[in-house]
Amino acid sequence: LGDYKAVIRSHVEAFVKDYTAYFETNDALDDVKRTMLDPMPRLTLVPGLGMFGHGRTLKDAKIASDVGEMWIEAVRGAEAVGNFHPLSKADLFPLEY
């Protein structure tokens, strides 16, 4: 279990680092002062096990899971009629903030 914890910790730390860089890069593009959202991941996909929602409360974790399930359905729907192309990080930032 110790090795598993180390791997998870490493992935979470990398996610937080990447999210922080994403926020700082995009926030600097204008004069609007924003507060960064909590950079912790809200969903984890584990091959062979499934998708897990995370949050500060059980309700938050359930909401994250619901959003993840809706996202999967949206991607499947897009792929059924063509190709799914996610927004770029630059285009996503104004929607998130």
Describe this structure in words.
With 97 residues, the chain is mainly α. The protein has one domain. It is 60% helix and 8% strand. The protein is built from 3 helices and 2 strands. It has helices spanning 2-27, 58-81, 89-96; strands at 43-46, 50-53. A two-stranded antiparallel ribbon has the order 1-2. A hairpin with a 3-residue loop joins strand 1 and strand 2 (50-53). The N and C termini lie far apart (37 Å).
In short:
By secondary structure, the protein is mainly alpha-helical.
Strand and helix layout:
Layout lengths: L1 H26 L15 E4 L3 E4 L4 H24 L7 H8 L1
Antiparallel strand pairs: 1-2
Keywords:
mainly alpha, single chain, 8% strand, 97 residues, 3 helices, 2 strands, two-stranded antiparallel sheet
